[in-house]
Design a protein that fits this description.
This protein is of the alpha/beta class. It has three domains: 200 residues, 3-Layer(aba) Sandwich (Rossmann fold), CATH 3.40.50; 86 residues, N-(1-d-carboxylethyl)-l-norvaline Dehydrogenase, domain 2, CATH 1.10.1040; 141 residues, Rossmann fold (3-Layer(aba) Sandwich). Helix 1 crosses helix 3, helix 5 runs parallel beside helix 6 and helix 11 packs antiparallel against helix 12. The chain is elongated, with a radius of gyration of 24 Å. The chain starts with a strand and ends in an 8-residue tail after the last strand. 45% of the residues are buried. It binds nicotinamide-adenine-dinucleotide (NAD). Nicotinamide-adenine-dinucleotide binds next to helix 1 and helix 5.
Length: 448
C-alpha cells in the first residue's frame, strides 16, 4: 500500500519504517529540513534500539522516502498518517495546532479520495475537528472529493519502539467507515497474523483508549510512589512490598516500580490533557489530579534527601560550590529523550542552590547539551567513572543497565564523601551499609 506520514519523530519514524519493512511504500514528510536532509544521509535523529539498520535498509531498497514537500506527500499516499506532536497548551490541554495544520495541508493538496489517520495522541473530539478542517478547505475549493478520518492511536514504548511496532499488543482502529476499516486491516495485516490484534471501535472510544492506557500506567507509578512515601514513614521497605503485591496476578509485577517520578513526552502531558478534558465537561477527575500531584512531589524527592543530608535547613548555602555526579539524564533507559525527565528537575534545583553537576548518560548527552547549552555549572562527562571525579556525592536518576553493578570501591575512592542518592532503587541498602556508603533510596526506611 502507499502511505504518507507527517511528523517524523519518535512515533512517525519508527512506525513508518516498520510499515516499510513489511513491504508498504512509505513517504515521510516533516517540516524540519535538517531532520529530513540528515535522514536522507542515514543520520537518524533519535536513539531507538534497532532503528538505524532498519531505516538504512528500507531507504536503500526504496520503500522509505523522506521529504519536506507536503504536496508530494499528499499525492503519494492513499493513507495519510498524522503523527505530529500534541504538546500541552498553557492550561494543560493538548495543543492541536500541528495536527490541524497537517489536516489543512492534506485538504489543500488532495486530488483523490484519502483516508486520514490520526496517530498522534489527541483528545476525544479531535477527529471531528480534523474532519471539519478538511471539509472547510474542500468547500472553499468547491471540491467534492471524499475522505474519512480514522483514529489509530500509537502504543509504542520509547526504548522498545521497533519491537512494539513489529509485534504490537493491539491495533486500535476507530472508524465509522467500512472502506476506511478495510484499508486499515490491509495495512496492518502483516502484524495481525498469529492472533487477532485489531480492535475496531467508534472514533471517540479509540481516542479515549489511548488516554485511558497512559493514565492507568501513570496511576500505577504514582500509586507505588505513594506507597513508598508511606513505607519510609512507617519503617517498611517498599521493595519487599513491591514483591509482595506483584505476586498477585491481579496486580502483576509490571510497572510497579517506585522512583523519582515519571517523565517523558507522554504520561505528564496525557494525564494533564485528560484532566482538562474532564474539567471542560464539568467532571472533576480526582484520581488523575492526585496522580499528577504525587508525581510532581516525587520529582523533588531526591533534592529533599540532598537538602536533609547537607542540612540546608540550617545552612541555606550548604550546596554552594559542591559538585554532584549525576548518572542518567534521559527520562528512562534506552532512549535519548529528555522531555519532562526527573533529572532536569533535580539538576535545576542543584544549580539554583549553587551546586555544580558532572553528568553522564549513555545516550542523552547530545540532547542535554542541546537543552542546557554550555552552562558553566554543567560538565558532560564521557564515562560514568569520570563523572565521579572529585564529586561530593553520586545521584542516580535513570536505571540504565550499566549502572546496576558499578565498582563501589572506586565510587568511594573518587567521591569526597561516600554518599549515593538513588532515585531508582538499584542497590541493596544492606550492601551499601556493609561498604560504608551512605545510601538514600526511595521508600526504604529514611523518612523525609
Ligand atoms: P516528536 O516531537 O518526536 O515528532 C514530531 C515531529 O512532527 C517533529 O519532527 C516535527 O518537526 C514534525 N512536525 C510538526 N509539524 C509538522 C507538519 N505540519 N508537517 C510535518 N511534520 C511536522 O513527537 P512524537 O514523540 O513522535 O509524538 C508524536 C505524537 O505521538 C504525539 O501526539 C505523542 O503524544 C504521540 N505518542 C508518542 C509516543 C512516544 O513515546 N513518543 C508514544 C505514543 C504516542
Amino acid at each position: 500500500m502507499k502511505v504518507t506520514f507527517y511528523g517524523i519523530g519518535y512515533v512517525g519514524l519508527v512506525q513508518a519504517t516498520v510499515l516499510a519493512d513489511a513491504g508498504h511504500d512509505v513517504c515521510c514528510v516533516d517540516i524540519d529540513e535538517t531532520r529530513i536532509n540528515n535522514l536522507k544521509k542515514g543520520i537518524i535523529p533519535i536513539y531507538e534500539p534497532g532503528l538505524t539498520p532498519l531505516v538504512e535498509k528500507n531507504f536503500a531498497e526504496g520503500r522509505l522516502t523522506f521529504t519536506t514537500d507536503a504536496q508530494f506527500g499528499v499525492e503519494f499516499g492513499d493513507l495519510q498518517f498524522i503523527a505530529v506532536g500534541t504538546p500541552p497548551d498553557e492550561d494543560g490541554s493538548a495543543d492541536l495546532q500541528y495536527v490541524l495544520k497537517v489536516a489543512e495541508t492534506i485538504a489543500t493538496h488532495m486530488t483523490t479520495a484519502k483516508v486520514i489517520v490520526d496517530k498522534s495522541t489527541v483528545p476525544v473530539g479531535t477527529a471531528d475537528k480534523v474532519m471539519a478542517t478538511v471539509q472547510s478547505v474542500l468547500d472553499a475549493k468547491s471540491s467534492d472529493l471524499t475522505f474519512s478520518v480514522v483514529s489509530n492511536p500509537e502504543f509504542l514504548k520509547e526504548g522498545a519502539a521497533v519491537n512494539d511496532c513489529k509485534r504490537p499488543d493491539r491495533i486500535i482502529i476507530g472508524t465509522d467507515s467500512a472502506v476506511a476499516e478495510e484499508f486499515m486491516r490491509e495495512l496492518y495485516a502483516p502484524f495481525n497474523r498469529n492472533h487477532e490484534k485489531i480492535i475496531v471501535m467508534d472514533i471517540k472510544s479509540a481516542e479515549l483508549t489511548k488516554y485511558a492506557a497512559n493514565c492507568m500506567l501513570a496511576t500505577k507509578i504514582s500509586f507505588m510512589n505513594e506507597m513508598a512515601n508511606i513505607a519510609e514513614r512507617v519503617g517498611a521497605d517498599i521493595e519487599h512490598v513491591r514483591h509482595g503485591i506483584g505476586s498477585d496476578p491481579r496486580i502483576g509485577y509490571q510497572f510497579i516500580y517506585p522512583g523519582c517520578g515519571y517523565g517523558g513526552s507522554c504520561f505528564p502531558k496525557d494525564v494533564q490533557a485528560l484532566v482538562r478534558t474532564a474539567d471542560n465537561i464539568g467532571y472533576e477527575s480526582k484520581i488523575l489530579k492526585a496522580v499528577e500531584a504525587v508525581n510532581y512531589a516525587q520529582k523533588h524527592k531526591l533534592f529533599a534527601y540532598i537538602s536533609k543530608h547537607f542540612d540546608l535547613a540550617t545552612n541555606p548555602n550548604a550546596l554552594q560550590g559542591k559538585t554532584f555526579a549525576v548518572w542518567g539524564l534521559s527520562f528512562k533507559p534506552n532512549t535519548d529523550d529528555m522531555r519532562e525527565a526527573p533529572s532536569r528537575v533535580l539538576m535545576e534545583q542543584l544549580w539554583a542552590a549553587g551546586a555544580k553537576v558532572q553528568a553522564y548518560d549513555p545516550e542523552a548527552m547530545e540532547e542535554t547539551q542541546r537543552i542546557y547549552g554550555s552552562r558553566s555549572d554543567l560538565s558532560l562527562m564521557g564515562t560514568k567513572e569520570s563523572a565521579l571525579n572529585n564529586a561530593d556525592a553520586l545521584i542516580i536518576c535513570t536505571e540504565w543497565q550499566s549502572f546496576r553493578a558499578p565498582d563501589f570501591a572506586r565510587i568511594k575512592e573518587q567521591l569526597s564523601e561516600a554518599v549515593i542518592f538513588d532515585g531508582r532503587n538499584l542497590y541493596e541498602p544492606e550492601r551499601m551499609s556493609s561498604k560504608a556508603i551512605q545510601y538514600y533510596s526511595i521508600g526504604r526506611g529514611l523518612s523525609i
